[in-house]
Design brief:
Blueprint (H helix, E strand, L loop, with lengths): L9 E3 L4 E4 L2 H12 L21 H16 L7 E9 L2 E10 L2 H4 L1 E8 L8 H16 L4 E7 L3 H9 L3 E10 L2 E11 H7 L5 E3 L1 H7 L3
Parallel strand pairs: 5-6
Antiparallel strand pairs: 1-2, 1-9, 2-3, 3-4, 4-5, 6-8, 7-8
This protein binds coenzyme A (COA).
The site of coenzyme A has 22 residues, from strand 5, helix 4 and helix 5.
Length: about 210
């Protein structure tokens, strides 16, 4: 979208591409949301989360509304970039990066999901590596955080493997029930130990200019 640079950002790796979540791409990705391919056991998402909605039409509507609300909020206190994960030209998941008081703190948090039939072959780790490259190299972040319920072995393994350090724990609810979250922190220095030279950022200058960094 030529008039809105935050939707024009792309991050490419040898196996996947993160593309700014335009409505056209979200419309394609919605087929996976409608089909329930965001699901995982044990439940990985903290409340409130549209993916727990059982009615497929309402699930898609709630998911889109949450994305649009966040898209419309670009302020020093809070912003989020939302990406559709593309493999071989097809949408397979979603990846976000968010800043809260970023210009003061320099910290970001990330969130992602991958279609159930695409898991277990390294794409989750690759998506996280891509978004960290955008955060540290593209946006100049000082630190990235991630949370995952203690029984979310995939997400916790990715954080551990990419050099995050444990940063305590916290309680949250999932589908109304309390559960413990692991908190993880990746400093710029630790990211530098794992940084990749095969990840490319596209249209990043216009994005930097449009964000309150
Ligand atoms: C979390 C998620 C993105 C991981 O994606 P993935 O492509 O399956 O993960 P990868 O194949 O890159 O695996 C990364 C690591 O996690 C481990 N892993 C993945 N799934 C696992 C599982 N179910 N149990 C144990 N380990 C697992 C892999 O062995 C690998 O470990 P290693 O780096 O030590 O070899 C995916 O499972 C998902 O979408 N889950 C539902 C949503 C979610 O949990 N989002 C994040 C938190 S809210």
């Amino acid at each position: 979208m030529k008039n809105y640079p935050l939707l024009g950002v792309r991050v490419s790796t040898p196996t996947l591409e993160l593309r700014g979540a335009t409505d056209e791409l979200l419309d394609q990705l919605a087929d996976l949301v409608r089909a329930g391919k965001t699901h995982a056991e044990p439940a990985p998402y903290d409340d409130p989360m549209s993916f727990y909605e059982t009615d497929p039409d309402l699930r898609v509507a709630k998911w889109l509304r949450a994305i649009w609300r966040r898209r419309g909020t670009v302020e020093p206190g809070a912003w989020r970039l939302n990406f559709v994960v593309m493999v071989d030209g097809l949408p397979v998941g979603e990846q976000t990066v968010s800043g809260a008081d970023f210009s003061t703190l320099g910290t970001v948090t990330t969130f992602s999901w991958l279609s159930v039939d695409q898991r277990g072959r390294g794409l989750g780790r690759e998506m996280r590596s891509a978004i960290l490259h955008l955060a540290f190299e593209g946006l100049g972040a000082k630190e990235a955080g991630s949370d995952a319920f203690v029984d979310n072995h995939g997400s916790n393994a990715i954080s551990r493997g990419l050099g995050y350090q444990p940063n305590g724990s916290d309680w949250a609810t999932r589908q109304g029930e309390p559960a413990l979250l692991n908190r993880w922190r990746l400093t710029r220095q630790d990211w530098e130990q794992h940084r990749r030279d095969d990840i490319q950022l596209h249209n990043i200058e216009a994005c930097r200019a449009a964000l309150p960094l």
